[in-house]
Amino acid sequence: MQENEATEKVIIGVDPGTQIMGYGVISVKGQQISLVQYGVIHLSKYSSHELKLKKIFERITQLIEDYLPDEMAIEDPFYGKNPQSMLKLGRAQGVAMAAALARNIPIVEYSPKKVKQSVTGSGNASKEQVAYMLEKILQMELSKEFMDATDGIAIAICHQYHANTPAALSSSSSKKAKKGGWGAFVSENPGRVK
Which residue positions are annotated as catalytic (predicted)? Predict the structure, then answer.
């Protein structure tokens, strides 16, 4: 019984946003991935950015208390044309990360392209394609009303796929690492680099 419990891992995936923040919680036992919970945090109803940040911190903290994740995977903010939007998105990500750090939960960041590529095989996949592949991976139907939550699930699954690569295992001392950089590529593909 003890051995079986040791192999279970809970991962929370977070897709930061300033209007809607998606999340997904998965459980991994051996190679079996199962969905524990997913949903969205609606933030557009709050009048100020500060209130949105407070709500993000409270909801992520509550999710952590409810599901006791072992690790957090979070999407890097993508670089858009509007620096103000980028700053607000970065703050939202930081507050979600602070909730995990307050509970000593290791965090790994992934680029949106890396997440899509891990789940669908294409870094340019649409939200619908990601949702379709998640239904195949999890062998269940996902609610279309929570399309933003599927990104959270995808981030958690991406983390699981990359957590057991040779690059991840060799750098496990650095828990808050960025995946998908040149160093990770070289470590994962030594035969492809000359």
Answer: 15, 75, 148
